Amino acid sequence: MALLMASDVLFVRGVYRNMGVPDSLYVVVFSGLLEVLYFFKLLPFNIVMAQLCPPGCEGSLMALVASAVALSFIISGYLGIALVSIVGVTGDDFSRLPRGLLIQALCTMVPIYWASCIPDGKKLAEKKE
């Protein structure tokens, strides 16, 4: 996912346009693919959370997760505006946009650090016994 986000830097610099790929094709294919990958990324976490919650609470937990995802989209929009301001992108000057896109791609890799906190199937089986 981070690689697809980093490919936006090549898009902004016009590399794909120079290769003969129209901008509209790139935007539709890669933006669509990135959205699909985002939701596939959430699926394993939803399954683990459903296994960890008490029986009968799965629906409430999924509603909570859906609300948290919606809130995260809102917050990420505001953080994106802050990042653009910090990097120095303005309405007239997009020269620093590739730097902001690289920072965004690197931030998507931060959750890898916390992946070790997710229990695996063996630990879940031991807790149930």
Automatic annotation (TrEMBL):
Transmembrane segments annotated in the record for this chain: 25-49, 61-89, 101-118
UniProt KW Mitochondrion keyword: no
InterPro entries in alphabetical order: BT1 (IPR039309)
Main location: membrane
Entry keyword Transmembrane helix: yes
One matching Pfam family: BT1
Protein's membrane topology: Multi-pass membrane protein
Localisation per UniProt entry: Membrane
GO CC, any one term: membrane
Keywords for the protein's UniProt record, in alphabetical order: Membrane, Transmembrane, Transmembrane helix, Transport
PANTHER family, sorted: FOLATE-BIOPTERIN TRANSPORTER 1, CHLOROPLASTIC, FOLATE-BIOPTERIN TRANSPORTER 7-RELATED
The name this protein goes by in its record: Folate-biopterin transporter 7
